[in-house]
Give the backbone structure.
Amino acid sequence: MKITVEISDELLIEAKKYAAGHRTTLRALLETGLRHELDGVAAQRSRIGWVTVAGGLPKEMDLADRTKMLQRFNK
């Protein structure tokens, strides 16, 4: 798919030099950068913070219900 992206001239020049120096295309460089950023976002979203308490899980905690768990930790 073709898109138009507006970036500074300096950044474009630097990106083209980087791509040429690494024997790749600007397209491949942009796709790699986007994938890297998006993978980081997905990894952050899927993290669950485990909390331990004396006596086991809180009564309202249901390990089988991911939605309730995420609601509890994203307050």
Q: What stands out?
A: The two ends are 38 Å apart (CA to CA).
